[in-house]
Amino acid sequence: MKSNLSNRIQSHSLALGSIFALIPFVNCGPSSTTTRQPVLTVLQSSVSIGDPHIASDSPTQLSIIFSIYEALVRLDEVGNYRPSLAERWEVGEDARTWTFYLRDGVRFHNGETLSASDVVATLGRVLDPAIGGAFGTQGVYISYLGTAEISALGDSTVRIVTEDPMADLLDLLVAMPISPASELDKLPEEYVGSGPYRIIEQSATQVVVAAHDEYWRKAPDYREINWIAEGDPGKRVEALLNGQGDIASGIGIQGWERIAEDGRALAHEMDSGLAIIFMANSLEGPARDVRVRQALNYALDVDEIIAEIKQGAAQPLNGYLTPHHFGYNPETPRYPYDPDKARNLLAEAGYEDGLKLVFDIPSVMPDEAPELARMMVEQYSRVGITLEIVEHQDRTAYSEMVREKRINDAAGFDSSPRSTYRVLREKIHSTLRGPWWEGYENEEVNSLIEEAQGTVSDTERQSIYLKIYTIIRDEAPWIFLYNPTRYWGVVPAMKDWKPRVDGLLIFS
């Protein structure tokens, strides 16, 4: 199983007073006893569920989905793979043939018992082109498993045979929630899974789930979980402090500081697995030249950017991954701020008299993109780069533009998959030309990606990924910026709660 390579994970709990034991809260947090608590109220930016079989990296969406559903495998709190609906699995030495042995006695919310036919039918729906996508993710899963043979070997065994070696198949399956075959045609209007909670109420602003009494693992911690949508992080913090919620997510550093100063709740933080980057257009234009791409990295003072627009709530990237990713190399040096080096590289590339570039940015996701672009304009001007910014208001259309390779000289993006394999296949491999590939070509990298997928040993595959990490850092197909910090607040009764590396809220 994969190990978590991060040595920079932060999970700080600020215990700010024992007076809260005397304050009557609307809802109760976890208890040290085995008695199930009545209701947990979660405050987050959105409660949209959508179609659970559309590829998504949204923690708010996935937190609700995986309270209702389960996949064949799951990630634990620190990012290691654990059995879930599959109690064990095997992979052949060719890294193509996977066999999953299902757990006995798993019941869906409709009373049906899990069988291999449910898994096969669900994966068939996941790979149906009609399912579509969100923010350009349509067809992502099909590109991996569209030619795979997925079959039931009796009632309790599933076999997946991929066309090409796929040693990181679990990276995909962990995000594919399993439904009973009989309920698939009701999606996405009705949600029936095998998870610890079943949905009983849903609106645009609220989702309520109730404990699944026949859940195969230990009894769920709560009788109900009430997910409340509040778009304003300040209002989420206010509601938490006033006893109108038990946990508030996505509160930002300002909310974290307010909770720490207020003393009526506990504050948590953890570096995210999100990479804020600009993907350079290596298909055409000045960024085809590696010297220009390197100069674009040397010319930015990322520490200054983090201090000003993130108030320090981020860590600078030293490459295309975050410390939470498999194959991340903490020893790789980041690009230092070196404007002289940037000028020299630009001169070598033929731009000693200056360079004009056009960058695309979305207005949201990341939300700080406009302010980030403003700082980049100013910093690039110091080395003779005149930067024009084109801001796009429609985030979905922006994703489609990037997917169709219609960007200008670079495009701002948030690289969100926790799967290193997905990042490499969808953004880097030049033969596959995935949805977010923007022209970078390196045959050695392609070969190493393919070698990694034929390598069953995690240790050996990690070694290959470390080689890729160094090459990509040096050839700079992206402008490497930062990975943001995530923040939460919880009531004192949840003093034992800890954030997960994937940012999901899991209560079971």
From TrEMBL:
Gene Ontology biological process: peptide transport
InterPro entries per UniProt: Peptide/Ni-bd, SBP_5, SBP_5_dom
Entry's Gene Ontology molecular function annotations: peptide transmembrane transporter activity
Gene3D superfamilies in UniProt: Dipeptide-binding Protein, Domain 1, Dipeptide-binding Protein, Domain 3, Periplasmic binding protein-like II
Residues annotated as domain Solute-binding protein family: 81-401
Pfam families documented for this protein: SBP_bac_5
Similarity field: Belongs to the bacterial solute-binding protein 5 family.
Name of this chain's protein: Solute-binding protein family 5 domain-containing protein
Organism whose genome encodes this protein: marine metagenome
Classification lineage: unclassified sequences, metagenomes, ecological metagenomes
